[in-house]
Amino acid sequence: MNLPNGLAAFIAAVFLGSTAAYSETYKESFECTFGRGVANRPTPVRLVFSVDEFGRSASLHEVDIPKVDTTRGHGIISSDSIRRLSFSWFGRDYTYSATGLSAPQNGASARTVDLQTVEYSFFLNRRTMKAAVRSEDLGESIPLYGNAQGTCQPISTLK
Description:
By secondary structure, this protein is mainly beta. Helix content is 8%, strand content 45%.
């Protein structure tokens, strides 16, 4: 069976392992701080991230949410222009610090937030460096929102 050269190389790399080193490069990095989230929902108070060199994804280096343990991750950029930057990500691996679970123990309330179904959205006005972050619980029939306003500052590009 004859395979195209590109496909043969791909299969060989998958089965034999690739010797090429992969490194992520970024065109810019930011550190943002936010006030308390409106509606007392799990909303970040601090966010450190970098935008990849092509403006397609954001690498989340640090996400601080009160009473929530977070992990590093990636967001999908929806807008990257001279005036604005916006992206979103899901908190699928986030857990409540007190229990280590994604949903609160006191599940008797119909308005609890399961972190696995929360989508976070970030918006930055590049002119003023003012930012907003929003959390939306997509697992509810009536979505639960949290919003916070803040500011960002560019930081030296992380590697």
